[in-house]
Hints:
The structure is a single chain. This protein is α/β, with parallel strands linked by helices. About 60% of the residues lie in helices and about 10% in strands. The protein has helices spanning about 5-25, 30-55, 60-80, 85-105, 110-130, 130-135, 155-180, 180-190, 195-200, 205-230, 240-250, 260-275, 275-295, 300-310, 310-315, 380-385, 410-415, 435-440, 450-455, 455-475, 490-505, 520-535, 550-555, 575, 580-585, 595-604, and strands at about 140, 150, 150-155, 230, 340-350, 355-365, 370-375, 395-400, 405, 420, 510-515, 540-545, 560-565, 565-570. It folds into three domains: about 5-240, no CATH class; about 330-415 and about 505-604, 3-Layer(aba) Sandwich (Rossmann fold); about 430-505, no CATH class.
Amino acid sequence: MQFGKGHAIGVALAIAAIALAPVLVTNGFYLKVLFLIGVNYLAAAGLNVLVGHTGQKSLGHAGLFAVGAYTAALLTARLGWNPWLAFVAAGAMAGLFGVLIALPALRVRGPALAMVTIGFGIVVEKVVSEWQDVFGGQAGIYGVVPPSIGGSALNDSQWVWFVGALAIVAHLTIRALLRGKYGRAFMAVNTAEVAAESVGVSVYTFKVLAFVISAVTCGLAGALIAQQNQYINSDFINFSLSIFFLLIVLFGGSSVYGPLVGAVVLTLLDAFLARWPTAQHFTYGALLLFALYAMPDGLSGALGRLAKKLVPALARKPVLPAPTTGWKLRAAERLAADKPLLQTRAVYKAYGGVVPTNNIDMELTTGHIHSLIGPNGAGKTTLLNILSGIVPPDRGSIEFAGQSIVHMVPNRICAIGLGRTFQNLKLFSDMSVLDNVKVGLHRHMRAGFWSCLLGLPNAQREERAARDEALQILDFLGLLDKADEVAGSLPYGLQRRLELARALATHPRLLLLDEPAAGLNPQETQDLIGVIAKIRDLGITVLLIEHHMDLVMAISDHVIVLDYGEKIAEGKPGQVQNNPRVIAAYLGTDEPDEDDLELEASHG
Ligand SMILES: Nc1ncnc2c1ncn2[C@@H]1O[C@H](COP(=O)(O)OP(=O)(O)OP(=O)(O)O)[C@@H](O)[C@H]1O
């Protein structure tokens, strides 16, 4: 586990506070409030991974809290399980339900996802209140067994220590997870799902994982409540509890400290307002609106900005080390030149009456720069989307590096060496330039979930190696001095180059570039020619879509021309340029003249 100096001091202070609080505070009510802060923190810390980092808003986590609470209750009160074991089983059972709720959530997003999670919460609430034989309804389950030490059940002070220890463990592990490749992948899924897939991050896996993490911590929170009260009934499980958990996360902010700030403030407020339930609901609603409109990065974000203003040293960015060597592909990833790399046969895609890809046969050769040109709407981007797995073709075959990639998901296609950029930029714009490139390296990082969660040395070593390689790639593309900046704040031309850097980080054998010169000024376009040639010299095959004919003619070894979804010509740039069908397609006439072709094409 990696500790910065400031963080280590913070953790030490938190441990001291948790150790001392039950000694200094003896009043039962205050001890209960401390316990609840810990419980709410635990639930919110996991929910923050789902909501704050992966961008999946859930309004049904009271249901997962209930799964944990009732699992612990039934296992101890009815089946006589050891209470410690039942506590662990409660987390595991909630994790299983997390998978269950994640599956429909993979198909929907935004408000529809909120509806799915609300539905889940309501179903659980109904089950525990109506199925009285098992869950006891409003009468509830008595005799839930609390964990014990040396034969006696935990007392109020020990409960605070126990939940405090769990909170520290949750903080350290979730922080370790979010600071590495898992955290970047969650954020990538949050910002641009298609881009995340195209650089090798499985959106499916990371959404399910985020649901499971949030479910486990919410389930453990439920078990703590049931075991501490030694009782649970259906009144605990209601829609307000789901709102309360979500509010802690949104109000606290998505930083790792957000759930702590949110849990402390809102638990205290909850305890203070307990006497006025109507004021409670009104206050939560008002706070939720306030958090959404006035503090998009929550109270922790606002406090962080204030702290940086007051103590300028906190705002100073760390000095990144220089990359150790120049970047080049690993020898194993270089392919022999002039061999077939990608072949399509009769690839066909129709949208109703529009056929943007009409029986395309195409062959790309290793080490070459191929260009795909054609008038607007000819079907170039659709073909690129088919090759990269974003759009499934209706029929036809595609072989890449000896494997069929038809119906393969984009992250798998990326993993076997097909990288891409997008016509409309799809950067992870809130992340740093360096982190954008590191997301591209995701597939090449081998440390597993538990190594990252526990911050084991292999995960840390790999993280340092990834940083070094990302810096090498940025250096290769002249972006090294921007490594620390937020991607979305770069000038447009540099953002295009960053997307290229991120694609290179996936170690592609074939790189698909969709209009890389769009929006660039003449000097930037000229520089891009040099960059693409440098990429080819690394041994990477390129397929380029471009409207700038100067660029296409200057660097292509082979040009394919599409019109209305059909391949109308291919060959060396000079041959294609003089092909009458190509000239006619660009000008929409039968008697074009070549100067007109240049003009039309470069204005495309
Ligand atoms: N998802 C879709 N649904 C319906 N029609 C689509 C869809 N995607 C593409 N098309 C249609 O397919 C045709 C080809 O579009 P595509 O974007 O592939 O062309 P393009 O050659 O890349 O054009 P441009 O040079 O303007 O980017 C267009 O008529 C477009 O409207």
